[in-house]
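May I ask for a protein sequence together with how it folds?
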Amino acid sequence: FAHFSSCPLLLVLFFVSLNVFIFLFLFIFLIIHYFKLFHGRSLLLSACLLESTEARLLERDVLASRVREVEEENRQIRLQLSQSQGLAAQPAEGNYGNQQWVASADTGPEDVENTAEERANHSECSRSPTAEKCELIHVACVCAGHNASRDVVTLVKSILFHRRNPLHFHFITDTVANQILSTLFQSWMVPSVQVSFYDADELKSEVSWIPNKHYSGIYGLMKLTLTKALPSNLSKVIVLDTDITFATDIAELWAIFRKFTEKQVIGLVENQSDWYLGNLWKNHKPWPALGRGFNTGVILLYLERLRRISWEQMWRLTAERELMSMLSTSLADQDIFNAFIKQNPVLVHQLPCFWNVQLSDHTRSEQCYTEVSDLKVIHWNSPKKLRVKNKHVEFFRNLYLTFLEYDGNLLRRELFGCPSQASSESTVLQQALEELDEDDQCYDFRRERIMVHRVHLYFLQYEYTPTDDGTDITLVAQLSMDRLQMLEAICKHWEGPISLALYMSDAEAQQFLRYAQASEVLKNRKNVGYHIVYKEGQFYPVNLVRNVALRNVNTPYVFLTDVDFLPMYGLYDYLRKSIVQLDMANTKKALVVPAFETLRYRLSFPKSKAELLSMLDMGTLYTFRYHVWTKGHAPTNYAKWRTATTPYKVEWEADFEPYVVVRRDCPEYDQRFVGFGWNKVSHIMELDAQEYDLIVLPNAFMIHMPHAPSFDISKFRSSPSYRYCLTTLKDEFHQDLSRKYGSAALKYLTAQRNI
């Protein structure tokens, strides 16, 4: 050591060599230990793939701790060496990039010889932190409006697909998103998933004073208010934009909270565009930022610490100061976050860039990955979304579309080993299923009646302004993919509000979306509510789907019809006048709209009753189901209708199934009837049991357009078991009517026996 004292460089090299020797010794010891432990099993298996035991984990942790100590000593020695040679000069202000700064800010014992970008672009299983098994992970999103509510579902699917931990979603929503998402999650019933909603209207005053040019509007500033909006006992949360897609388990991101230093409160990925560097165009002046700045599409918020440092006061002071010169934000909350970080760099923990691969224009995202396995989170942060230009955009788009069209029913899987409290809805469903007899010949029919289908309300933009006179009426119908071509024609024939429930798979729902967005007729109609009921089970739950459309009307009256009927031109206005004339507000009436049909795919639609009667006489039109099911509409009394000029009352008869106008508070359809048979008959029977008067309108009509037979009617005709179960369900319905309405319902049973 006397020789070394005269030469510091030799002393440093001696300690480096000594530590390298210790490291190699420990490494050899580990190999020998594993060889003994596994009795000759392959030592080439990746540590990421081996099944761990408590003992091995403990020893590995001890060894890893010692390795970190050695690496830290090496780092300190190299730092001393570089300082002695005058190589530790600080970067100039103009070159003060986040990647250089994070080497000292990150808590991990990273080697300063490796650049942050090299460290960030590759994931090594030995360094990846993991969340505790069954640890509850909290995720927050700001979601407002119909489109964002649709986008967030794809984000949720990607998280659920990869997750192995219980989740608690926190949604800051407007009224529209609250209604859509609360219904969706309630009907989705995913195990080990909790959902909470927070009213965005109550938070608007916190940020409404900030001028914002970003297309997200006031909701783009809401993330600043999360310390106030979320529960005070919530300590940490992952905050995500709705245009995010996960390619890995979100628990990996949650575990990064453990790498925060005591002072760090926010985790962010560096911005991958040149926006905050300025000079993108003449007079381009971005908000202040640290180097390239940070993107706020993915944020780790240490809420407990943020509250401790008075976050609300700090971001307000930052915003007020910068707005004196900037006048408004361009990128909403992101500008304020970056200005805050510029002043307080010690508070931010920079995340590896694969946790927010930003697909905006002129992005540097390609530097975030070299292999598919490197990808963690994809962020469609360009206004162009899927149309953005990127070298690998086809791969990213296919990944996104996978989750977009993925069957959400498959995500209702239990987390084994993680006990969770079942929701009241799932408990009731489970009890009902247990009460069914699996040996019952009609078990599948009974099971379908209690099945809960996922429902996404208002799949497209919806706007409705109530009328002043209280006579407004909504056309209510249901359809599947094979009737989609009827929508444009119905919209041309009916100018009033429409409530449509569509029975579709996830993939079909996206086909419908593309169809509607490409149609000039449909995209210009904002008073049509499209409600998706997702496919599940072997039967078409026609009455459940009808009820979804019926429950989501906003008018006092409804016109209950089928999507393959075209109403006469002007029927909307005619019905509103009839509602007033027949005093429907104060009486129980069901207004019957007479139904006709054509066998021609091309029809010159009659513009008046006189024209229709002429076509009826020529054989171009027929009374509905005249050839195959006369009694379904015979009580309408078409002979009387031909000459009628005033409304007339008809009596209920067995199997009568007219299309009617009633008040919105009418009874719902009976959901035991699925597929083909008695789904409308049972509803008219209950209207009669509740003493509704059936009134035929003399100047109203609708025409059924031809189409191929449905799959369900084919099953009815070919399956004796199907017909037997339908008869059984009819009998049970009669019994239920008798219990509900007493002796007045006996006539239905008598009428059925006389058929």
The first strand starts at residue 137 and ends at 143. Residues 247 and 399 are 8 Å apart (CA to CA). Residues 1-6, 34-55, 81-126 have pLDDT under 50 and may be disordered.
